[in-house]
Design goal:
mainly alpha
């Protein structure tokens, strides 16, 4: 069984989050790490996320097709 170094994982996620501008990615990072991820304009819940991606074809594809979320 592989051991997981949670501190190293958190550090890696934070480093990636600091370079990312992907709303969906940042939303999920915020769910995992809470206050460690700044939430300036991040949706507060799934409904806000699905509403915020409406009309953006790339985000819609990622969220609804690739990740399998259901549309409201």
């Amino acid at each position: 069984m592989n051991g997981v170094n949670s501190d190293q994982l958190k550090t890696s996620i934070l480093e990636h989050a600091n370079r990312s501008n992907n709303l969906i990615e940042l939303y999920h990072f915020k769910l995992a790490l809470g206050s460690l991820i700044p939430d300036d304009d991040l949706p507060k819940n799934a409904h806000e996320l699905t509403s915020k991606v409406q009309g953006d074809k790339e985000y819609e594809r990622l969220l609804f097709e690739d990740l399998g979320w259901r549309r409201n």
